[in-house]
């Protein structure tokens, strides 16, 4: 019920605007005849169905979901008098503001009111027959089915254009076909230095080195640019960059979220590494998705003794374990929390793979798209055998050991060897202790030796008071394993050496790794899925079988089995994944190519990548979208093939320079007459600062680099030393703090402070499209962050180390490293003057060095301030 209330509140705030801009309703002056299916039903569906028909709710006995039901009326009689709007009760109640009720924020717009009135006045026409046995709960009109996103992908022929001189690829022709009728064309190509910076950031997420820039600028071969592209696509940094994009839509996090405790997911990093490796290998995207949705169903139980290939498929299912999950936290309502995990998982799957807001149908039929509440739960039924809220596995039980029988045998063998050493050590230890005791007894009066020896042999619980007193008076004979070193250092060292030998043997044991995965239990039938009344998990109603959304299911699309007798699992997720990636699904390929386009141009051909539905924005270039979708499937679902198509086009290679005519005709650049200027995202900004400073650690993979709160409450990379005995002590990071941002822990409650101002997503539950804001905290971070200040100093020392003593040479190198260009003579002159003036200033008024640190030389301090200015500049932060 909470989800429903929140949904309604948000819709209430947005609908007055959304309704006016997205509905199919037409004003009364429209020349075309208004119909119920096309013009009126969407209005009633948005504002009225919730109380007049859905889930058995019929206020006033009135059901508005079909034209015939409106005509039948309700408790107050006929609701409709065709041809006479003023005599129609439906129109009267809406016109007078009685309906929807005042406490419902979803008000009809003026255009919607005019449409409703004109429709009734024109005779309340319906164009489709409505038989008496038609179930209005699952009714989808022909107009709804004909919506562009629900149609099969159609590969359009590459357009012929009047002037194809600027076209290099088919993409260019599609773009020119929209530009030329508007009086536009592609801008001239960007210069070589701009282009290598652009494409390197796009594909690797870090800037090119000065040597790489110079080599490309000087390369006169006609295939210089394609050769550059292939080098970038072969770099291991490519997968780290493009894997990060997928991790956004997957909702990747190294913690559970849900509550302030935000427990860690210590094994989630394996999924992150799987994604990165998949992009580097150019794994076919259909296989990539099948493994994530049903990798476990590609294996044969039991999931033991897994080889590398089997492990990879199991790791892939971490995609379905990314939703925030509070079921392992004490004090939470486990039934509510497990249902919420299912809700968020459906949201991640549907927004990332279908580009639809399927979750809006959790409590009632979708108000805008033809997705029924039953559709929502039938879609959920695909996943419930593995994510059964009624037999829920908390996070601690969702791991599968990677130990093989051979690993266990080896570990047991080594443990026997270690214990043998320790047993020998115990014998030696007893011998050393006894010898030491005898030496100590020999130092005492002969009369005491016997009683003391007897007291020592007597178990402590059986000693008499006299024995206890005797041992207390002569502590030198109380030799133990812990005190032996006080008497015989040589013996203690020998024992330590034997203990170290045993530890060394145990260290050879294979490390037991774990996978956070999804799998179906083998000892129980597949879970039943119920429709929840108004989305309330405590009010289940009817059972629904698994299936595709009704509007997406073609007549020849395969059924999702309830329980596949040919498989050890239900087979539901595998069947659905194979249909989704079959090349026949109307949405999947479109959604993925749109995301790839978006990452190259900053905006998708469909500007709302997670919503291809009625509330989304229509594609600017629908024929190009379908051509790319078909090309993607026809070429083995290769993402790198799409990169080549896009990046080699003149549309991508053109300059970002604006001109007055382009701004006048197409100020928003929807026709792509110039390359959009884009700001570095949070990860690229941090990685680039480290790369330019000369510190970026390119170590790949493995457990996430930890994040902690520092003394002032900012979240920084580090690990608190809880054994140090003093607050604020941290463990040495050994350059782990300099690794790429994709390997830094994604803690939902601890966003890295240096990246947070630059629109770092929170993963609640995922991020379908990143914002790119310009706000004051960004400038404040660049001015005051210890991370930037320290990097600026390291950058300055790098310049002095690599460019020599010439200030002009240092400035030139700084420009090349930060901007991938060579400064003009005027820029060098101005920069030299600035650094020299700063040097004089710091010599006269030196900064006080932090306690325990030596003061910087004025020249270093001056160059540091110059480097910080470069880091803070638009030239550094934006890619042309």
UniProtKB/TrEMBL annotation:
Superkingdom to which the source organism belongs: Bacteria
Pfam families recorded: PSCyt1, PSCyt2, PSD1
Keywords: Signal
GO MF, one example: heme binding
Native source species: Roseimaritima ulvae
Lineage of producing organism: Bacteria, Pseudomonadati, Planctomycetota, Planctomycetia, Pirellulales
Domain Cytochrome C Planctomycete-type: 48-103
InterPro entries, per the entry: Cyt_c-like_dom_sf (IPR036909), Cyt_c_Planctomycete-type (IPR011429), DUF1549 (IPR011444), DUF1553 (IPR022655)
Keyword Signal: yes
Protein name from the UniProt record: Planctomycete cytochrome C
Domain DUF1549 per the UniProt entry, residue ranges: 170-385
